[in-house]
Amino acid sequence: MPENKDATTAAAAAPAGPEARVRITSVSAAGAATVAGSATAALGLTWVLYERVLPFSGVLGFWLSWYAIFLLFYGLMAALQWDRLEATSRVSAVAFGTGGALALAIVVAIVAYTLLKGSTAVRHLSFLTTSMAKSGPLLPLSVGGCLGGMVGTLEQIGLATAFSLPLGLAAALFLAEVGGPLARPVRTIVEAMTALPDLVAGLFIYVLFILSLGFFKSGLMAALAVSVTMMPIITRASEVVIRLVPGTLREASYALGGSQWRTVWNVILPTARSGLATATVLAMARGIGETAAVLFTAGFTKTLNFNPLSGPQINLPLFVWNYVHNEGDIPADYARGFGGAFVLVVLVLALFTTARLIGGAAPGEPTRRQRRRLRAEAARA
Asked: Which residue in 128, 244, 267, 349 has its CB near the most CB atoms, within 10 A?
C-alpha cells in the first residue's frame, strides 16, 4: 500500500509532457470527396445544358451556371450525409470559401495583368526619369515617361491629406467624444459623402473654385477634389478606432482631474495612433487612384510641373486615362498608359502594405517593435 502511494505521488510530481495540439477544424475524406463529386457533376450537367440542350453560350455564363449548380449539388449531398446543422455549416463554409478564393483570384488577375502589360514600358529606365515633354506618339518607348504624373500624384495626394486629415479627425472626435443633437446629422452627411460619386466631387470643385471664383486648373484644385473623397473615409474609420479605446482610460484621466481636451490629446489620440494612421493611409490609397475627381480640375500637360499652385499638373490616373485608349491607333502610347498603371498599382500596394503594418495592433496594444524593445529591456534588467 505505501508503495502504491509513493508511485502515485511520484507520477503526480513528474513533469507533464508537451500538450498535444488539437485541431478544431480539419478536412475529412468524406468532405473532400463530396466537394469533388459535386464539382464534377455540376461541370458535366452544365456542359450538357450549354452544348446539347439549351441555346446558351458565353464563358462567363457557363462558369456562373456551374457555380450555382455546384452549390445546389453540394447542398443536396451534404443533406444526405449529415444532419441539418452540420449540412448548413458545411455549405456555408464552402460558399464563403469559394467566394473568397474567387475574389482573391480576380484581384490577383487584375494586378498581374496590369504589371505584365506595363512592364513593356517600365523596363526602360527613362520611363521613370523623364516626362512626355519631348516624346510623341511615333517615338519609341525609350523616349518619354511618367515622371510628371508621379510628381503630380505625390504632390496632390500630399496636399489632399493635409486638407482632409485635420477635418476628418476633428469630425471623428466630435462624433465619438462630443456627440449631442448635431451628431446624427453630421454622421448622416458623412455617410452620404462616402457614397458620393467621385465625379460629383470634381464637378463641385470645378464649379465653385474654377468657374465661380476664377481659379485656374492646377494641382491644388485636384488636391481639393481628392480631399472631398478622402475626408469621409478618414472620418468613419477614425470614429470606429476612437470608439475602440477602452473607457477605463477615459475614466482614469477624468479621475486625475484632466479635462476633456486633455483626455483626448494625451490619452485617446496616443492610444488610437496606429488605427488613425491606418485610416489615413487607406484614405490615401483610395485618393491616389482617383480619375473622375481630378478630370475637370487638374488639367493636362506633357511637361514636368513641380508647382501644384500654378498651371496644369497631370497625375498618374490622368496619365493612364489619356494614353491607354490608344490601343489600335498608337501602340506606343497604349504601352505608356499601362506603364503608368504599373507605377500606380505599385504605389497603391505599397500604401496598403504600410497600412497593414501600421494597423497590426489594436488600440492600446503595443506593436511588435515595442514588444521587442520591452523584452530587451526586461532581459537587461
From this structure: 267
